[in-house]
């Protein structure tokens, strides 16, 4: 992660937390946030997306942004990832935030991964005592950015079960945008990881990732995260045939690329009809 230009600290302090508004919204600079109920989690909808067992409750963290403003994904690039603290909650064994596939943005300040206009992050909530009410209290830190970045803190709450889970459709739609995890062979159906390696035979080091897919099913985009936390620039498509796509990136932007040899990488492959999250070990 690399940080974009922030507002002066004195101004940030004045903007960080604003009072909550009606309907659960907490207003903030150039954005607002709330928790929305989506009812009982459906095991089929969650398949391949969570390690938590059902029965569980499904909620959404909804963030709306002013036109032209953006917020960040979990691995933002030149940005600030959201932080979630659920310590004030009651009857919560675990709360797992799921991430719809982001968009890659590029501007004068750098490159970053995130969301524009609006995002709903599905959250799977496993209660300690199934069947008993759940009280969610979230301390949320996130950033909104345009020409500058403004860090924002919000205190959000929700009580479950909610007899009128009006957010269910929005959360289920967001859930469909969350990648499923690949199987043990590195496959999501006909989309597969064929090779992932570091190469040092050119003018600069490069990471080369090869994906295979059915004709017409080429991936739309790729995001790479290092388990070491090392910054990974956005991959570029280098080769493409009907059934094979190769992406390259220069890993030296985040440090010594040789330190990545033998290390696990998370690959988020954006593809239709279903995006996929794969684990690759760099050769």
From TrEMBL:
Residues 56-158 form the Thiol:disulfide interchange protein DsbD N-terminal domain. It comes from the Bacteria. InterPro entries: DsbDN. Keywords: Signal. Residues 1-22 form the signal peptide. This is DsbC/DsbD-like thiol-disulfide interchange protein. It comes from Dichotomicrobium thermohalophilum. The lineage of its organism: Bacteria, Pseudomonadati, Pseudomonadota, Alphaproteobacteria, Hyphomicrobiales.
């Amino acid at each position: 992660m690399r940080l974009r230009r922030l507002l002066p600290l004195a101004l940030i302090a004045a903007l960080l937390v604003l009072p909550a508004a009606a309907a659960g919204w907490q207003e903030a600079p150039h954005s607002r946030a709330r928790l929305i109920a989506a009812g009982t989690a459906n095991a089929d909808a969650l398949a391949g997306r969570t390690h938590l067992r059902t029965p569980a409750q499904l909620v959404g963290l909804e963030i709306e942004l002013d036109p032209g403003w953006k917020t960040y994904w979990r691995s933002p690039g030149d940005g600030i990832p959201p932080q979630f603290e659920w310590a004030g909650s009651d009857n919560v064994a675990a709360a797992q935030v799921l991430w719809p596939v982001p968009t890659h943005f590029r501007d004068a300040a750098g490159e970053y991964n995130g969301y524009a206009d609006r995002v709903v992050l599905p959250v799977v909530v496993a209660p300690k005592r199934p069947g008993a009410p759940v009280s969610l209290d979230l301390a949320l830190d996130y950033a909104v950015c345009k020409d500058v970045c403004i860090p924002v803190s919000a205190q959000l709450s929700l009580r479950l079960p909610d007899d009128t889970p009006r957010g269910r459709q929005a959360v289920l739609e967001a859930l469909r945008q969350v990648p499923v995890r690949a199987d043990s062979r590195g496959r999501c159906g006909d989309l597969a990881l064929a090779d992932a390696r570091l190469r040092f035979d050119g003018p600069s080091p490069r990471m080369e990732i090869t994906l295979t897919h059915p004709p017409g099913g080429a991936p739309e985009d790729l995001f790479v995260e290092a388990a070491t936390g090392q910054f990974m620039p956005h991959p570029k498509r280098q080769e493409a045939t009907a059934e094979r796509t190769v992406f390259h990136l220069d890993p030296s932007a985040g440090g010594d690329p040789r330190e990545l040899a033998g290390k696990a990488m998370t690959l988020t492959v954006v593809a239709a009809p279903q995006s996929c999250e794969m684990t690759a070990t760099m050769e």
